[in-house]
Amino acid sequence: MRDMSATELMSRHNIDIGDVSHLADIDTIMDVYRRVGFKDVELVFQGNVLAFDNFVGNNLAPGQSTSFALAFKRDDGTGHVVLMRVWKEPNSNKVNYLTTDFQRPVAHPDRFSQWMPRGARTYYIIHPKQVTYIAENDIANLVDEDVVMSMKEGGMQNNCNGRRVIGYLASWAKKSMSVNQAARFTNLIYAFVRMDADGGLTIPTDTQAKQRLLDAFIARKALAAKGLKLAVSFAVGGWENSQHFSNVVGKSGSRSHFINNVAKVLNDYDFDGVDIDWEYPGTGGATEGTKEDKANYVTLLRELREKVGKNKLISIAGAAGEEAMQGFDIKNLVKHLDWIGVMSYDLNGAWDSKWGAFVGPNSPLYHGAPLGYSGKLNIDWALKQYVCRSKEPGKIVLGIPFYGRFWSKTVDGKDPKKYPLFRRAERVNGKFGGDRSYRVLLNTWLLPNSGFKLNWDDKTKTPWAMLPGNNLVLTYDNPKSVKEKINYSVKNNLGGVMVWSVDQDDDKLSLTKALDGACAPRGNSVNYKCSPLEERRWWTYTEDKEKAGMCGKSAPLYKGYYPLCDPDDPGYGCCSPQGYCGAGEKHCSCKGCVDYTKNPQLLIKQPQKPSRKVQWHVGFDKVKPGEPRCGSSAPPINGYQVKPGEPRCGPTAKKVNGKMAVCDPDDDAAYCCSKWGFCGQGDDFCNCKDCINSKKINLSKLKPSKFIGVYKPILHGYVPKERKVFYTQDVSNFFLQSHSWNTWPKWNILRRKTVLFFAMLRVTLLLVLEQSLTHALSVNS
């Protein structure tokens, strides 16, 4: 049967040609062996099954196991490879075989078998040692010399000047990664190895996943021959496989089991490191997290470092969103890590929220949205948080997406002329849109005659495109935006850049080539204006929807402090005199405005806690959003109703902590109480008769009014300060004792008569009502 062709062999064994996915020619098999580079194999079994069986029996001890890749060649030039797992049972010399033939469909009886491949005697096994020799001499030819020279000139040979250019290689990617593409990276991360519920690890076994892993190891070997270093790590977790982290990491036993499995994979596969992609500790992602995750994550990395030592790389994928970032103890995590790769993409996408679906850049470098948008959905904000908290910019890596996001149907946003990209999305067939790789975009939507209008948003440094008609909007990264991010990384002394994912580049490697320059020399200093506070002192929307955005001395205290504005949020980093956080001239550049973004040191220079126990009303009055509540910039009191019948300060205002309400002595804009019960500054509030200046008087000696009752007529929003009204059981004896006219403003005679007229009218109506009731009672009796 040695001379039998593959076709004749399949006919003899009743194998339908349709059941075989392909018959690899022997050159393909030889190429696979060249790339693998087998080592330390001494024997060759030229189709002699008995010799192979004897070799296994003589070299395996009871309980031991090993694996082989067996290549078979036929006389017609065809051949294929099978994977064979061989083991001896404990306390026995019995040999077991498990063969996996990937050329057969899963349902085929010979796909998995416990014997040598049927018909193996008609083939021979390629001499692995000979292939090793060929690989050592030929694998270097896979690298283009021009690429090698370019990379060495760019600093790759000098280990990228201590920085990194990292590429994720997706196990499910259909497109292979060439050695020439890999030459432009310092690190590759194979994603993902699955984490099991008990902390075990499962490596993908399908042919495509194995081929991607092979791509990485081939590249490492080939580049090493040219003097270029490439480290290969494996990633655990991801959006769809982070569900077990909380349980596993939270228990010492399962955590140790997980760490031991990581160490085993590192050693068995000769990986250079591991990347933990927990999405997300604390807040959760596709699955919920726990509050203990934050501390447990630090424990995991500390123990992992102790286990694998300093020679193995440990990295993590970090969140870019504010909420998800709360679960990362950056300051302590970074102590055990080589780097944190910040996933600074997916900051806008085709998903819904309770406010609607908004269009914006997938990976904006800077804030560039209209007023009312958060200033935190950008790379600059996210990277600043990691650097300022860790104080180690060299360990923080900027993430770059090799894909774009789109919205199928959009309408104008708040300010379409000034901000044409920031639109609103509508559903099409139940969905808002999706994503596309850069390779697909370049070959479809971005073609010259596709009808898309190409744009560049200079504020966010983002390319985007729109298709007229249904207004489909696409945001993505191109070589220009990638260069902007490379320059940003160098300027801020970051630890480099990372890419998700290398297979999504086009065939010309346009985006990969744009990474050149990432290894430029740089310093180690922190170049951001970091907040001097260890914790925030401002209200967030998630904490309190009503208080979020309040600031200054008239706002509700935050943890005992006057609330400030977030200095890292360019959309809400300034406090207006009216007590609102925002941006623009009305919040940042006006008289009385406080700009925390430009000068974060103001956070600690200003008084932070009240100078005395609170004895004043705080918080928003019931006014329209954005309107001032009191002070010289507030609307005139005449006609301005803070809250009907309730002044803010003075004897007629509601008590605060059991004492008469006054104005905040720390608030330079409103520290005086006017005789009408409003806080402000100037003569009308500080220097009039009955005005109370909180900075000059002893507030503890002030006492509320001792009047039996207070009559509070409302006229144009005014509440007179001292109006005494006494009541008796007999309604007919009701009378108005005093209006204390001298405490009212100097109104004209007509207004005084009007007030008196309505007061007398009320008394008359009450008397009439009493007489009617008396008459009714007498009739009924």
Automatic annotation (TrEMBL):
Residues of the signal peptide: none
SMART domains: ChtBD1 (SM00270), Glyco_18 (SM00636)
Source organism superkingdom: Eukaryota
Entry keywords, A to Z: Chitin-binding, Glycosidase, Hydrolase
Pfam families in the cross-refs: Glyco_hydro_18
Example GO BP: chitin catabolic process
UniProt name for this protein: GH18 domain-containing protein
